[in-house]
Amino acid sequence: MNRQGKLHPAALAIDELLRECDVSRTRRGGPGGQHRNKVETAVVLRHRPTGATGQASERRSQDLNRQAAVQRLRVQLALDVRREVVAHELPSTLWQSRARGRKLTVSSEHADFPALLAEALDRLAATEWDAAKTAEALGITATQLVKFLQQESRAIEQLNEARHTRGLHGLR
């Protein structure tokens, strides 16, 4: 939570997030056999407050596509939406549960990943994209922070673009 007490949209429970979304189901082309275009299995989610979207059509199951679309929407929200944070406030309980011994362990496929990504990017923005200060505030090493961001190429690109505009060198 930020100091206004609102969760980042990437951290919302699935039901709460879906209440803020327009959901559409469509047929999609591509591989999948003779049953591919007989039912509307593709799912497109559009988050009304931000306009961010997440979509999935690679499975023949609408439920599996919905799950993938939710995860993609959450990642997109983590990348697009910045929340104001106070530099000295403690990391979230979720972050603290994942950060042990100055290391952060979470796969980009895990449901917690988007919320953690949003928190890391919010902290980076609050420190003017200083990875060392952000890592210290989050209780991990700068190397761990960069490795975490590298799991989502758009996040590391966002970090490096912001650093470049401030005259700082990029991180790999």
Describe the structure.
This protein is of the alpha+beta class. It has two domains: 9-80, 2-Layer Sandwich (Double Stranded RNA Binding Domain), CATH 3.30.160.20; 93-165, no CATH class. It has seven helices and five strands. It has a three-stranded antiparallel β-sheet with strand order 1-2-3. A two-stranded antiparallel ribbon has the order 4-5. The radius of gyration is 18 Å and the shape is elongated. The mean pLDDT is 90.
According to DSSP, the number of beta strands is: 5
Percentage of residues assigned to helices: 40-55%
Give a quick account of the main beta sheet: strands, pairing sense, barrel closure.
3 strands, antiparallel
Overall 3D geometry? Answer: elongated
Average per-residue pLDDT, rounded, comes to 90
If helices are DSSP runs of H or I spanning 4 or more residues, what is the number of helices?
A: 7
Strand order of the largest sheet: 1-2-3
Q: Helices and strands, in N-to-C order?
A: HEEEHHEEHHHH
